[in-house]
Protein 1
Amino acid sequence: MNNSGKLFKYMNCRLIRDGDLIEDDLWVRDGIIVNPEYIFFSEKVTADVTVDCDGAILCPGFIDVQINGALGVDFSVNTDNIEEGVAKVAKGILEHGVTSFCPTIVTSSESTYKQIVSRVKKKNGSKEGAGVLGLHLEGPFISKEKKGAHDVNLIQTFDNGMVDLTKIYGEDLTNVAIVTLAPELAKSGEVIKELVERGIKVSVGHSVANLIQGEEAVLQGATFITHLFNAMLPFHHRDPGLIGLLTSKKVPTDVPYYGVISDGIHTHPAALRIAHRVDPKGMVLVTDAIAGAGLPEGEHRFGSQTMEIKGNRAVIKGTQTLCGSIATMDMCVQHLRKSTLCGTVRALDAASLHPAKLLGISDKKGTLNFDSDADFIVLNDDLVVLATYIAGECVWSKAKI
């Protein structure tokens, strides 16, 4: 159906706007949110299509800046058909309200990066799937002591600065949105500066950095902390480490943002509450999902291991060892609101506005402001996703609204 030039009015809904949940209509034309007053007075026209939302909440589409795979796809492993894998996940996450994402590559070999970085291109979302905002390269320039599930044998340093980094990733970093690195590594300052100059966001994580090293990284241009509390030194009252960046007076007040896996497993609800109360505007929800996300309960074979999915946990068969996150973004938002009592708007902002600000794209995504992309989702009061829209087109619907 050709909707070019048609004016859509979404009525009987509550919109997330300017930090509030307000009763208003949403007007969309040619994939952009428009100002109805301007159209009415300048064009003297009314809506071509009116949609009754039956009192639902309309929120900007969710943005996931750290997702390793889903639906049996592992972006770091399924490299031969990486484009197909990204497309499969992009389609599958629509039902969870995700309209844009950063496919994430964990610490890998040089040949793997050379296969992936040039092939996973930035792409607008559509009915075929969520938009790709660029890759998140999580490693290999990280701490061996805080490697988490990363392969220690593939961890690298950049003693020669950007020369070593581009040797691993390749010279062309056009398709990269975020790089996670350990700021205590030698030459990290010059690497951070160079990446930022290239328009890439730098995140600190998988690190044994102390607070001073973290502050230096932020002053060099780092603006994100990868999965706060996980794979970093624990908080200590004499040196709070990277966690201390949330209250540091030596860095700008609007950075860094920090990622949190709000699945009730990777981050204890008490830790979630502490982070949110200290810096609610910096919280960015991430799923950090692995290939098991979206798969049914039971046993699934991945590489040399068998994963067993029980409820919202994925463990190595016969053990209680977590394989990783199988969270979905809508679940993370629901858990955040329930655990922190932060309210609907703040919970939704953490999955939409904040990641958009982190990536520097809040002029077009992460809000329902006039002239923004019409990427939005329809939710009920339990924050269950009812429908997902990209550029004004309904790309997934639970039921007709």
Protein 2
Amino acid sequence: MDKELDSKYYAHDEAKIEELLRSQPWKENPKNFSKCKISALAAMRMLKHTLRGVEKGKARDEGKGLPLEVMGLMVGRPQDDTIVVLDTLPLPCDGFESEWDVNIGDKAMMHMTNISEQMEKKGQKERIVGWYHSHPFEVGVHNNCFMSAIDVNTQSMYQKAITKHWTAVVVDPLRCVAKSKLEMAAFRAYPDDFRPPADQAPDGESISENKGKNWGTYPEKYYQLQTNFFMSSIARSTMELFSKDSLWIRILSNSQIDDEEFAGKVVKRIGKCTNKISTATADPRLYDKGSSSKDRSAGKGDSSKIAHLLCKEQTLGLLRKLLFQGCGCQKKTPVKAIGGNK
């Protein structure tokens, strides 16, 4: 959760927004918008809406139906290299992706137009900055936050027809429930004439080294934004007050080292930390001419943060295992760190 000043996200600067739209930095850099900040309110409303789609779908066919995909709009503003999402507006459109035909697309566009006109009439400062939809698929090692072929085409169309800063968010509601954390990611389509480096996934990682992750049919046509969440100081204080006496229960009842997805990333994180330390402590003469002592210090700081998080995660995981084994709540097995066999 981002703890920066509220004013950075809630203060509206129309002149700055107009200057951004006028300068059109995305023409020079297709990945100009690289971050997406989502308010706790917007995230909660997206999750609530997508879970309703799950319940509605399962209630069909005498309780044997499949979860339905839903969609809605995001309200906020573009801000430098960031898309700020403050609120959401659910749309009365749901179904399976195979059912998302021209009629549903026209219906969604009609609602978007009506909502935009109403917001303009009311003089609302915030504007529609994109859309969200759900992927309520089976829970696996990786999340289901990706863009299908239909999603990519839809996003590309919206960026061209509505506004250049239009952004898509994909929510994985079943995984949110299973993992007790928000599983959603923001994406944008590349221009038609842009081609990213070969073998590069939308998140910047290598596709061949992460074959288990599903990026859809056209991973080379879109990219993922760095997604973070924030809340107002008042909301944060309230949450801290509520969780003060019970937070330790949640920490001990959820161990990341028991998570298969987490275990697969630990080695990569250790390698990243090691590389940063090696680079930061190397002979200064080996550096490029453009590097500085400040860059090396930043590298040391980043590696320290990674190492600290790894130690914290492993300590809490081992503590949980020992605690549950001691009280007989878990079968006794050899305690191994770094996501070892359980």
Protein 3
Amino acid sequence: AKVKGIGVLGGRKQLYPVICWTHEGGEGYSARDASFSSDGASVAATCGLFVRIFDTKDGAVTQRLKGHKAHVVRLCFSSVSKRIAAAAADCHVIIWSTESGEPMFHWFEASRVSSLSFSSDADLCIGGEREFGLWSEAVARSTSRKTQSVVACCSWSVEGERLALGMESGKVSVRDVGGREVYQWDVGEKIVSIGWNESKNGSGSARGGRAPNAWNLFVATEMGLVKHFMLMHGGGCQEVPELNTKLEKRTVGVCLIQTTGHMVVGGQDDQSAHLHAYGDVLLMCELKSKILSVTTHSTVASTPLIAIGCENGALHIFKLVGSAI
């Protein structure tokens, strides 16, 4: 990866993307998806029929999870239990124990799986074609509910009480823990990323230095539109236009690092990733293959980590380092 240094960002921080390590792949598979463990010590990536788990410090392979008979397309770490879920192209889903490396649960979904998300209670959302499933370990089975379009992305709120679904049709649907729709609206474009405000008071992050503007949910579209919304009582939502951004590129994914106020943007056409911060757009890296996935890990006490998966099977791990000015 060709890495670019990041200079002063709006006079607030001088940050640099540092490449930690790269797993080259080159074994006939794509790194379609990646997920960090809750402590940031591990990162998992799709590797053909397998899931590989790497140590984020040095890239050493710590586990190779097997059981699928078709290429793995989506995966997700559980934030509260030592579990990892992965869905394959043949609609099978497996949940492994990350302690033993052995499969614990295995079932078949009725449609192609397009997204996965664990809640803080270890409930799993399985996004599919015009439907989504809800799985819990207590009943060890998935119950499906219909939607109007493919569920391109899904995300549980921090407390695990609400589930946001982003559709290929451009519709946003917010559900309760039982799957009942409580909010819905349309952004008019295919959604590629959706995420919740991680702060408990809903004050948002340091996006553009405008933290007092409260928001609950951000949505990013394939055509580069990023919008923020506040959920209102009674089932309505209010857009927060001063936090919105129009990116100058088509995207495969957008991740918001709330602890620093950065957005990480994976380009769909130019094999590059960018950082957006405080109004600046800065080139992060240029890669040798098409980007398929972008994911991040960040806590107040840790250095932000970024994983970028590519079509040629390469997995690139970066960290943002720097100091306040």
Protein 4
Amino acid sequence: MSAGVPTMKAAKNEKVPAPAPLMVSGNVGVGRLNLDTAIAQSCGLAFSVAGVKGLFQNFHSAATALRIAWHVGEIHEIESDSDTPVARFFDELDVVEQSLIDGPPPHLPFYVVVEGLDGSGKSSVVKAIAQSSDEYRSARTPPENIDNVRSAFDRCGGSLARAFYMVSNYILQANMWAACRAADASVMFVVDRMFCTTCAYTVGWRNTEGGAEAVDVLPDVVFRWPTDLQPPNLVLILSVDDTTRRERVEVRNALTPGDPASPWDSRLSEYPDLPIRIMQAFMRMEESLPPGTLAVVDANRTRDEVRDAVLDIVHGARLTDVTFAASI
């Protein structure tokens, strides 16, 4: 852990006061538009990788960005009569940071990640894998234990929202490591989205224009798997044409009328090149994963056909043995 990282906690219903205002371009204080610059100037941290804004390379950079934004009042507590969920979220970041300092457990989790566009059928595939063996535990990012603060960061938008989704990968990792330590054995997980989504959606949304060629020209460093995040044993990318994807989204929304619609549903429909860029970014992730880790599944078929194809890959593929030492 680098020296000087601010670890900021807030008491209930009390915001941590900033010890001194940050100076940006001669103006005192930090506003939404100049927060990125303030953090870059104060900590030497960037909110971008090779020009891709909102992309973070490790836990430290994303967590520090969030801590500073919380410290200066850019992130607001969720109103509650008896709880301070956002403050507790920052306590959780301290726990995750300590887990990285302590290092991975003796027995690493074995985990399969299911990736794809909204409406590609990820939830069905995760359920199918989990039901195929009692050994699998299902999980997702963001993990359920931080669901109650997601809206606070979504409201921030931009780089702070992306930082939240970045650290959610590490919160899930800490949860999986804790399960392995408790079992004193490797525990198997199937995960609905992880860092591949964090990277691909950041690359595709407002960082690139055009089709797959806009993603192809980006340097390899953009798609590099973080060195402090345990790589998965298998990544399944669900590929689906846009007509089928839209139909599934409509059916899903009709079946869950009380659930808020994902903003990505409208974005993917409004910008026809966006899903192309995201899918190409998924494919670029293969370059930084162990050989044989990534598999593409044609998800245009029926649910049963997709399930059978996925289970054949999961059960029959030579799954990569992961050796990992966290680097922070």
